[in-house]
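Hi all, posting the design record for the shared folder.

TITLE: backbone redesign
STEP: 1 of 1
STRUCTURE INPUT:
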């Protein structure tokens, strides 16, 4: 009898996304190391990148953000409200936060950092 094929983490992630199983994703994601998760989500389509990132608890989201490529960080920044960016940066070491900000496109960071969107309209980590 041949051994049953096991799903890789990437396969499981794809499967849960295709099924829109957010509870399954929310259960799986916290068990993944930040560098591994950053690698898995960096090249996902933008909508999936946003879903996965927003399902992470804030401390894990912060760690994953630190490991994302500047390109993936910029893709996320174009969709984060100023409060969300502030939440992430406040959970980083100051030198890491400065490094992330210096790597992002100014047209994305500056307006989000200085703007004040109404908090009722913005998604926040809980």
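Okay, here is what came back for every position:
SEQUENCE:
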């Amino acid at each position: 009898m041949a051994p049953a094929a096991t799903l890789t983490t990437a396969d499981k992630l794809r499967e849960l996304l295709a099924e829109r199983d957010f509870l399954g994703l929310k259960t799986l994601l916290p068990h993944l190391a930040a560098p591994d998760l950053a690698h898995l989500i960096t090249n996902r389509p933008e909508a999936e990148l946003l879903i996965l990132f927003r399902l992470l608890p804030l401390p894990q989201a912060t760690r994953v953000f630190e490991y994302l490529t500047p390109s993936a960080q910029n893709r996320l920044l174009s969709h984060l409200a100023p409060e969300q960016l502030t939440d992430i940066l406040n959970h980083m070491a100051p030198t890491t936060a400065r490094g992330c900000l210096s790597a992002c496109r100014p047209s994305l960071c500056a307006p989000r950092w200085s703007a004040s969107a109404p908090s009722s309209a913005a998604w926040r980590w809980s």
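COMMENT: The chain has one domain: 10-113.
Let me know if anyone wants the other runs.
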